[in-house]
Structure formats: structure tokens, C-alpha cells
Amino acid sequence: MFIWLPGLAGGDRPLGCIDNGDFDGFSSRLMWRERGELKGYLYYPEKESRCGDYFKFDITLNK
Hints:
63 residues; mainly beta
């Protein structure tokens, strides 16, 4: 389970699993995962995964 947090987008705001070359823009969101992990989710023209790239912050959020 995760909770989506607000994000940013520009250009044609790509969403969903789409191939590189089918869009000209970016979108990014943050997710708050189990155990307080904060992760980023990014769509951009050179992404490695068809469904967007994830990256982990070196931070843990606690209630």
C-alpha cells in the first residue's frame, strides 16, 4: 500500500505505461510507502522503465 502525494508535470503530462517517443513532457510524484519510506515516481522522455522510473530518498518519515 502507498499514498500518492502531490506532484509536478509539464509538456503533455505523460501518465500510465507509455513508450518513450510517444510523449514530450514529464510528470513526477512522491509516494509514502510502508514503514515511512519516501519514493519518487518519474516519467520523462529517457525513462528506463515503460511504466516510469522510481527513485528512493535517503529519508524515512515517521508519524
